[in-house]
Amino acid sequence: MKMTKVVPFAMSALLIGGAIVAPTASANEGKAVVTNAKDNNEQNPQVQPIFIKIAGTIESVEKREDSTYYTVKEDKNTNVFVVNNDTLVFDNTGKEVKLQKGDKVTAYTYANKPMLTIYPPQYNPEVIIVETKEMGIVEVDFFNKELVNTDNTLKLNVGKETELLSLSGKKVKAEDLAEQHLLVFYTIATMSIPAQTPPSKVVVLDTIAQEPGEVDPSKAAVQEIINKDFYEVEGTKMVPLRLIAEELGYKVESTGKGAIISKGALSYTITRGQKEYGYNKALRYFKVAPALLEPKKTYVPVEFVEELMK
């Protein structure tokens, strides 16, 4: 068995090197100003995005207890979208749809949302858009008091025909859109800077529990453990089971050959040297078998951490 202790920086580069994030149309929550600069970089300065977007074609679908995992590929890049009942799924015209294998999609997620450094990267998007042949453009961003987005590329001219909704179910008026995170659907826009459009539909994203940049303390602690204590075994990142499980609130009982970890109705039985492990009364499988890589410390594939964090 090939085993290598890898420094955190090198391993992080290995894990995320294959992932390329598409350019975004979002940035800092500040007032947009049109300048007279001739240079396009001055007219549209580079700013920190609020949302990032990841595009590709759905290659496979895996349903789990409370989420569905969609493996999405674009060229040589692979990403996984973890979708639950809170994920908004529309086509590019604003119609609610269901995701299917073969769909060309674009996912939008907060840029500062914490995520584990695993490969392929996994995202919990706020919004997923299915691309169709119908005419329709989508923007997901913060819009200021003048209803201009953060990189000064789009201004909304809301009219009587614009459908206004909110995730919270509250009734929305045009004045309620200012200084909000919005999902915008439109078809035409002017050639000005910023471009102006009469949107066909606007959804206020007002039920996001976690503000961008707010890090879950337990996730941050788990990530710190992963960064400091891991091995690479047969191309798989291996991390310490007990330290991470206990940080996430699980009870860990040693069996001599492995461990039983439990929390509430959840129970996992893990045996060193065996790829199969027990999940309640079912069997699941690791890519690489858990191993005693340091005295009294069982290590498991990092992908298992994501399962524990659900």
**Spatial arrangement of strands, main beta sheet:** 5-8-6-2-3-4-7
- CATH fold field value of the largest domain: OB fold (Dihydrolipoamide Acetyltransferase, E2P)
CATH class of the largest domain: Mainly Beta
- The percent range for helix content is 10-25%
**Any low-confidence stretches, pLDDT <50, length ≥5?**
6-46, 209-214
Largest sheet: 7 strands, mixed
Question: What are the key terms here?
Answer:
single chain, 310 residues, mainly beta, OB fold (Dihydrolipoamide Acetyltransferase, E2P), Copper Amine Oxidase, Chain A, domain 1, 3 domains, seven-stranded mixed sheet, five-stranded antiparallel sheet, 5 helices, 37% strand, elongated
What's the structural blueprint in terms of helices and strands?
Layout: E1 3-4, H1 8-16, H2 40-43, E2 51-63, E3 68-74, E4 77-83, E5 88-91, E6 104-110, E7 122-123, E8 127-130, E9 137-143, E10 154-156, E11 163-166, E12 180-186, E13 195-197, E14 201-204, H3 217-228, E15 231-233, E16 236-240, H4 241-247, E17 251-254, E18 258-263, E19 266-271, E20 276-279, E21 282-285, E22 291-294, E23 297-301, H5 303-308
Describe, in plain words, how this protein is organized in 3D.
The protein is mostly beta strands and 310 residues long. It folds into 3 domains: 3-130, OB fold (Dihydrolipoamide Acetyltransferase, E2P); 137-204, no CATH class; 217-308, Copper Amine Oxidase, Chain A, domain 1 (2-Layer Sandwich), CATH 3.30.457.10. Helix content is 12%, strand content 37%. It contains 5 helices and 23 strands. It has helices at 8-16, 40-43, 217-228, 241-247, 303-308, and strands at residues 3-4, 51-63, 68-74, 77-83, 88-91, 104-110, 122-123, 127-130, 137-143, 154-156, 163-166, 180-186, 195-197, 201-204, 231-233, 236-240, 251-254, 258-263, 266-271, 276-279, 282-285, 291-294, 297-301. Strands 5-8-6-2-3-4-7 form a 7-stranded mixed sheet, with no helix packed on it. A 5-stranded antiparallel sheet has the order 1-15-16-23-22. The longest helix has 12 residues, at 217-228.
